[in-house]
Amino acid sequence: MKKKLILLMMVLLLISACAPSYNLEGKIGGSQQSFEEVYGPNQQEDETGLSAIYGYVSETEISAIFFEDHALFITSPLDDMVIAEALEYAEQFLPGDAVLVEEEGDRSGNSDQVYVYDSELLGEALEPVGEEDSNANKQRFSVRFEASEESNYNAVKLQADGLEFIPD
């Protein structure tokens, strides 16, 4: 009996070690400390004007706005990327359980492209800020790729739904 119990405990330990572990470090919903750990020290020096609202700015210009120590808005410049490159770059900011629920735009680079996601992990970290619906344990957020004049994308902005203020 003792051997079976030990074997069962080892199997459960192995299963839990193999299960995907999702976190929000350096992602939408992550803490300011996690952004500093993932992207480096905070470079935000200007405490006036629009820059004063950003709680974190990295050396590579990844910027985040926090509410109750959760990143609810992230912006980062893109180096004139096609949509496939921009999507791959933006994945670093998505919770591991993010599920695409909607896509807007034509992927040509001539207009902004918007992807809308749901995340239970983000919903657990935040009390849902968006509209009340049957998915109360999920939080919706959007990823907007801004089109450049060269028919590619030059910026990505992630935003948890329900925010009243969207910086330009």
Strand and helix layout:
Blueprint: H1 2-18, H2 32-39, E1 56-57, E2 63-67, E3 70-81, H3 83-90, E4 99-104, E5 113-119, H4 120-125, E6 139-147, E7 153-160
**Strand-residue proportion:** 25-35%
**Percent range for helical residues?**
10-25%
Distance between the termini: 65 Å
Q: How many individual domains?
A: 1
Keywords: Signal
Organism: Planococcus dechangensis
Signal peptide: 1-19
Protein name: DUF3221 domain-containing protein
List descriptors.
168 residues, 29% strand, 23% helix
Provide a descriptive summary of the structure in words.
By secondary structure, this protein is of the alpha+beta class. The chain has one domain (22-160). Helix content is 23%, strand content 29%. The chain has 4 helices and 7 strands; from the N terminus they run ααβββαββαββ. β2 and β3 form a beta hairpin. The longest helix has 17 residues, at 2-18. The radius of gyration is 19 Å and the shape is globular. Mean pLDDT is 81; it is low at 12-19. Residues 1-19 form the signal peptide. Keywords: Signal.
What's this entry about, in short?
The protein is of the alpha+beta class and 168 residues long. Strands 1-2-3-7-6-5-4 form a seven-stranded antiparallel sheet.
